[in-house]
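Student: Hello, beginner here. Can you help me understand the protein record under this note? Any guidance would be welcome.
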Amino acid sequence: MPETDIAVIGAGEAGRGIAALARALGLRVTLFERGAMGGEAPDPAITAASLRGLAARAALMRDSQRFGLGEGPVAVDWLALRTHLAAADADAAPDSTPARFEAMGIEMVRGAARFAGPDRVGAAGREWTFRRAVIATGAQPVVAALEGLEVLPYLTEDTLPELEDRPNHLLILGGAPFGLEMAQALARLGARVTLVSPMPLAPGFDRDMVEGVARALRRDGVNLVEGVEAARAERAADGLALLLADGTRIEGSHILLALGRVPRLAGLDLIAAGIGAEGPLAVDGGLRVAGNRRVWAAGGAIGRPGAGDVAVLARSMLFRLPTPAAAPEPTRAIRTEPALVQLGNTAGEAQRLRWPLADTARGAAEDVGEGLVTLFVDGGGRLAGASLLAPGGMEMAGMLAMGLGRPVSELGGAPLPHPALSAGIARAALEHRAPALSNPALRWVAGIAKRLP
C-alpha cells in the first residue's frame, strides 16, 4: 500500500494552495480530484469575475454621461464578451492544471476519494496510508425543492459558464451574495433581471450595508422581490415562470438559483475515518476535524471561503504551532459595486465606530452615494472586526485586514494619500480617541505645552 505524508482531497483553492506549500517543504503529497481542473472545463469563478469586471466598465460608461462625458446608449456585443470570457479562463487555467502539480512532484489521483480508515484513503481502485489529510472538497449550490423545477433547465453558480447568450429576462431565486453579484452584473450588461428572495438579502451581513447594496442594484435596474416564497416553477411561452406564494406570476427566459452553498461531503465515508456522520464538519482553531487528529478541513467543506485557510493549515498542520481555540472568522464579501466586505469578529459587545465615505474629500469629489465603514473595537482598543461598503471595497479591505488585532489608533494615524476613500477608515478610527480629548488631565497637559517655545 503506497504511503503519503499529506493527502489532500479536493483541488479547489484551499486544496491546491496547501498541496503546493507542503510539497515545497519537501513533503510527499497526494492530491485527489474527481472533477475538472484547469484547462479541462470553464472555471465558474473566472466566468463570474469576468462578468463583474465587464459590467463595471459598462456601468462606468453610462454613469459618466451625467458628468457630461459622452452620450447615447452603451452597446454590449455579447459575442465579443463571450470571447473575452473564454480568453480569461484560458489565461487562468495553467495555474490549476494537473500537469502543473505533477511537475512540482505532487502525485495526482483523478477520482472520487473516500476514507477507508482513520489513516487511509481510497480512490481509483487503490488505497493510500497518510500521516495527515485535508478535506478540501468545496461546496455545491443549494437546489431548491420547488415544484416543477425538476423538469426545467436552470443555472447555478457552477453552471454559469453554460450561459451562451444574454438572457432576455433573468429570474434569480435567492438572495445569497452570488445572486446579488450576478443580478447587478447582468443588468448592467443589458439583461432584464428580477431577483426573488424569500428571506432578507445576504443573511449574516450588516443590514444597513446590505440595504446600500440593494439601493445600488435597484439603480442598475434590478427588480428586487423580498420576503415572498416561490410556490412553483413552470414552463411559459418565452421560457419559464415563477409562481409566488402571494399569487404573483413572473415570466422569464432563464432562471438562476442563488440559495447559497452547502459542503460537498457525500461519498467521503467520514464514519470510516472516525469523524462521524456526513454532516457539517466541526473544526478547532487550527481547522483540525473533531474525531480524528490526523484530519483537517478547509474552505467550502466547512462552509467558509478558502482563501485565508492555507495560512491556518500551514501553521496548524505543517508546523504544529499553537492555534486559537476557535477557527478565525473568514473574510466574507459581496462583490457588487459598491462591494460589501466583512472581516474579523463583528458580533458581541465590541464598541462600534462608523463613518460614511461621502464625508471624505474623495467621496465628495466623486459623488460617492453608497459608502460606509464600521469598525468593531474590543475592550483593549484593538480592531476586532470591520464592515465596509465602498466602491473598490475589495481592495480597500486590505487596510482593515492588516489592522485586525492591532490598536485601532494605528488606523487613525495611517499616512494615507489625499484624497482617498480609505480616509473614511482613518476617520472612523479617530472616533475612538474622541472621548479622551475631553479628559481634564490631557487638556491640562495641552495647556502647559502651548506655552513652550
Remarks:
- The CA atoms of residues 333 and 341 lie 4 Å apart.
- The chain has twelve helices and 21 strands.
- The longest strand covers residues 126-135.
- The chain has three domains: 3-140+262-318, 149-259, 338-437.
